[in-house]
Amino acid sequence: MSHPPYVIDELISAKSIAARIETLAREIQGRFGDTDKLVVVGLLRGSFVFIADLVRELDLPVEVDFLEASSYGDGMESSREVRILKDLRGEIGGRDVLVVEDIVDTGFTLSHVMHLLKSRSPARIETIALLDKPTRREVDIKATWTGFEIPDEFVVGYGIDYAQRNRNLPYIGKVRFT
Ligand code: PRP
């Protein structure tokens, strides 16, 4: 499949992301400082870079697990369904859980995942999203912690793709078609 030519303009630098993650990690430690173990759940695939950097800033006993959800439309965005393609390996009943998202857009993915994970009765469950596009929201949900609020731009990098490319950029960029 070919795509129209585009360039990527830097929106959030690697340095800004690293600084923000340090601040967020301190806030998470404040909230979960007394935990015996925090299960950090990355939503694949987009969160893999963020979770890798975030857990290395957390001075807490952590376990890392992953879940993959996929959303697909049936022509009606508002009735979008979310399927679980890969479930957690571990149990979260009675545990402290932090769900890590790269970006919250319409909110369907995070809302569905939270509904599912809460049904497993974790002791505490919170969410963190690196990016938030509040103007795109269709479901009333907000992550406990947000890295950056951004306008409705087509973003790539730091785990986020355009047609499976550009996930390896160390910064968040904005796609501009040329
Ligand atoms: C993206 C992103 C979030 C979700 C946000 O995932 O990683 O999980 O969409 O959108 P929403 O708030 O409108 O539900 P995507 O399905 O592109 O998969 P990926 O993480 O594997 O790239």
From TrEMBL:
Pathway note: Purine metabolism; IMP biosynthesis via salvage pathway; IMP from hypoxanthine: step 1/1
Gene Ontology molecular-function annotations: guanine phosphoribosyltransferase activity; hypoxanthine phosphoribosyltransferase activity; magnesium ion binding; nucleotide binding
Enzyme Commission number, as recorded: 2.4.2.8
Gene Ontology biological process terms in this record: GMP salvage; guanine salvage; hypoxanthine metabolic process; IMP salvage; purine ribonucleoside salvage
Keyword terms of this UniProt record: Cytoplasm, Glycosyltransferase, Magnesium, Metal-binding, Nucleotide-binding, Purine salvage, Transferase
Domain named Phosphoribosyltransferase: residues: 10-162
Protein name: Hypoxanthine phosphoribosyltransferase
Native source organism of the sequence: Litoreibacter albidus
Species lineage: Bacteria, Pseudomonadati, Pseudomonadota, Alphaproteobacteria, Rhodobacterales
